[in-house]
Amino acid sequence: MYYRCMGGRDTEKERGIDVLLRPELNTALTALADAVEEFAAQESLSGALPINLNLVLDELITNSVSYALTNVADPVLRLRLRRDGDMVVAEVEDNGAAFDPFKEAPKPDIEQGLDERPIGGLGVFLVMQLSETAHYERDGDTNRIILQMRMES
Fold first, then answer.
1. Which parts of the chain fold into alpha helices (H)?
2. For residue range 47-70, what is the model confidence (pLDDT) as tens digits?
């Protein structure tokens, strides 16, 4: 993991985290927590934002490792974090099969009790609830999810 400057020489520098994660669940989630902690310290993130950021990224990375990358010969899992004004922008990329969780994941029935609910969709629902924006795009053989979360004032 490394902290690096992004951007051209003539533009205001953007700082951020850009890390390739090993697509093994425990290792990836540990590296995620370390990246969020480092980013939060560098950007002086406060309140619930670092916790919520880790929570939503944990969900997305768990889904990538557990579903998207299981049958990929050379799996790639990447996390990018950066600040854009009063927003934190997070990107998760993998090279699994195309899948837009915001359109294709089952919609959870949040009215039912936990024991009656079918499995699936609740994590994506949580991601959407905690993010200002959540967007999926497919770029060649890469799935990319881009989240924005507002910084607390």
1. 25-43, 49-63, 101-104, 122-130
2. 999 999 999 999 999 999 999 999
Task: State how far the Cα of 2 lies from the Cα of 17, in Å rounded to an integer.
Answer: 6
Tell me, yes or no, whether 3 lies in a domain: no
Each residue of 66-114: pLDDT tens digit? 999 999 999 999 999 999 999 999 999 999 999 999 887 656 555 656 5
- CB of 77 within 8 A of CB of 140? no
Q: How many residues does the chain have?
A: 153
In a domain, 6, yes or no: no
Spatial strand order in the sheet of 142-150: 3-6, 14-21, 77-84, 87-94, 142-150, 133-139
Please report whether residue 2 resides in a domain: no
Can you give the pLDDT at residue 69? 96
Where is 142: in which H helix or E strand? strand 142-150
